[in-house]
Design goal:
This protein folds into two domains: 283 residues, Aldehyde Dehydrogenase, Chain A, domain 1; 189 residues, Aldehyde Dehydrogenase, Chain A, domain 2, CATH 3.40.309.10. It is 38% helix and 23% strand. The protein contains 18 helices and 27 strands. A seven-stranded mixed β-sheet has the order 17-20-21-14-13-23-24, with helices on both faces. Strands 10-9-8-11-12-26 form a six-stranded mixed β-sheet, with helices on both faces. Strand 23, helix 16 and strand 24 form a beta-alpha-beta unit. The protein binds glyceraldehyde-3-phosphate.
């Protein structure tokens, strides 16, 4: 940070490597509806980057583009297009063979890969994600799509056989649910959106997709790829204010699945808008305040490394981030000293700069909110323990390690979703265990220690409070084949490569008594390939 302070923190254009420079604002004036990329001449939402610029000695967020502020009319058109393409399960897409649907998704993936550089660049500009993390988000998404295809092939192979039970023969497969509304979060706008959108599509549902509030322009290069790769109406995009475009969709009662990653507050609003909530399936990734519990026999070096990664990767803006650390009183001084040093080593700067780990924050006024959290804690007896912690430069905040955080402080319970690391001390493991039990959230926990007996004693109750207990490592979603979910306010439904194929489908079967006549009918259907459902075709 010291070099930085001699010049302006935010570079002028000339200092930005050409490859990562944005030449002019990106005018996103189109949306995809019913297989047509439509022009939008109405109002536009301006997009500002967290990476500021200096104009007339005033530092302000850069204007980097705009996207359509559609109205309920366009949202309803998108809904009608998705409903027509699904056509009560009779549409070409939901009745298409799995093999053919896979071919469409593969074609899309090839097109998506052509847009890698552009999408990576926009991830940096729109949400301030570092270059390595932006590349990782893109590549991880491609891997996820490939793994999804493999998993579907495996699922289809298992379903390509008949079962005979108690004189009844049947073929059981997973069938789509209908129209899916997909909305991802700003922190993983591409990856988390696609971890629902791709499985929903590939299983035969039709989709309406709304990009998150931040991280919208990066989908521009994909509109044509969507249009070219899928039959009309199978995927439709809506842009704009959530209340304006999403409200009417939910109130129509025609959304069959809500795939939403965001806050539980918004999820509740959306669910309640549906006129027949029992018909609505929900796949939700929501709030979390994952705790790390550092026991007195923990390997401090490892705990510090994992807690720094876990709490400050992408500035703490991960749903899985460690958002409070409980440290045993006997090792608190050593842990806090080493942890503060580790945090001081994290370089702040622009996303494309090599070695940079902490970057500007994309949410408007986020630094004001975070400063308020720190002030609240400090007024109630905590302090910032690392040098420069909490220093704000417009959209940038140096990570702040705040200690000792106690009940009654906002940082004890609020999901800060930013570069603040609250540290609490405990003498008895009952204290952090009670914290987890009483928390509104139930996603994950990290346990640091070396005594197998004590770890086992803690993890047994913890697995019934959260959905993943990480031993001597940070909390995280991956590997993507592992189930990712949460209890209480943290999630509904489970996502993983294979679970996602299940959550967007329902098991349905064709069954018949094993009479001679029925056997002959079924044999004829299968042998003459008259049905796509009733089939023993095997995808290789
Ligand atoms: O924001 C929540 C993400 O699912 C976290 O994923 O743990 O791989 O960063 P991650």
């Amino acid at each position: 940070m010291t070099n930085r302070e001699q010049t302006s923190f935010f570079p002028d254009d000339g200092l930005i490597p050409e490859k990562y420079r944005l030449i002019s604002p990106i005018e996103q004036r189109h949306y995809l509806c019913d297989g047509v990329i439509k022009d939008w001449c109405g109002p536009q939402q301006k997009v500002f980057s967290p990476i500021c610029e200096t104009v007339d000695q005033i530092v302000r967020p850069r204007h980097i583009g705009c996207f359509p502020l559609l109205t309920s009319e366009q949202a309803e058109e998108a809904l009608e297009a998705a409903c027509r393409a699904y056509d009560h399960g009779r549409g070409a897409w939901p009745t298409m063979s799995v093999e053919e649907r896979i071919r469409h998704v593969e074609a899309f993936t090839l097109r998506m890969q052509e847009a890698r550089d552009e999408i990576v660049k926009l991830l940096m500009w729109e949400i301030g994600k570092t270059l390595p993390d932006s590349e990782k988000e893109f590549d991880r998404t491609i891997d996820y799509i490939r793994d999804t295809i493999d998993s579907l092939k495996e699922l289809d192979r298992l379903s390509s056989r008949f079962v005979i039970e108690k004189g009844v023969l049947g073929q059981i497969r997973r069938a789509p649910l209908g129209v899916v509304l997909c909305m991802g979060p700003f922190n993983y706008p591409l990856n988390e959106t696609f971890t629902t959108l791709i499985p929903a599509l590939i299983m035969g549902n039709t989709v309406i997709f709304k990009p998150p509030k931040l991280g919208v322009l990066l989908f521009k290069p994909l509109l044509k790829a969507f249009q070219d790769s899928f039959p009309k109406g199978v995927i439709n995009t809506v842009y704009g204010d959530g209340q304006t475009v999403i409200g009417p969709l939910m109130k129509s009662g025609k959304i069959d699945v809500l795939a939403f990653i965001g806050t539980s507050r918004v999820a509740d609003i959306l669910k309640h808008q549906h006129p027949t909530p029992h018909r609505l399936r929900c796949v939700l990734g929501l709030d979390a305040k994952n705790a790390a519990i550092v026991l007195k026999d923990a390997d401090i070096e490892n705990a510090v490394k994992e807690c720094a990664l876990g709490s400050l990767s992408f500035n703490g803006q991960r749903c899985t981030a460690l958002k409070i650390i409980f440290v045993h009183r006997e090792i608190a001084d050593e842990f806090i000293g080493t942890f503060s040093e580790a945090v001081s080593m994290l370089e702040g700067g622009m996303p494309w700069e090599p070695g940079v780990r902490i970057t500007p924050l994309p949410e408007p006024d986020k630094t004001t909110y975070l400063t308020g959290l720190i002030e609240d804690a400090c007024q109630k007896g905590a302090r910032i323990v690392n040098p420069d912690g909490g220093t704000v430069k417009h959209t940038f905040m140096s990570p702040a390690v705040v200690y000792p955080v106690e009940p009654g402080m906002k940082l004890y319970t609020d999901e800060q979703f930013g570069p603040i690391v609250p540290i609490a001390v405990f003498s008895d493991t009952a204290e952090p265990m009670n914290y987890v039990t009483q928390s509104n959230y139930g996603q994950q926990v990290s346990l640091f220690g070396s005594n197998p007996g004590l770890l086992a004693e803690l993890l047994d109750p913890l697995v019934n409070q959260v959905c993943r207990v990480n031993i001597n490592s940070q909390c995280q979603r991956g590997p993507d084949t592992f189930p990712f979910t949460g209890r209480k306010d943290s999630a509904e439904g489970t996502l993983s490569v294979s679970d996602a194929l299940r959550v967007f489908t329902i098991r349905t079967l064709v069954a018949a008594k094993t009479t001679e006549a029925n056997k002959q009918i079924i044999n004829a259907i299968v042998k003459e390939r008259k049905s796509r459902f009733l089939s023993t075709d095997f995808i290789l």
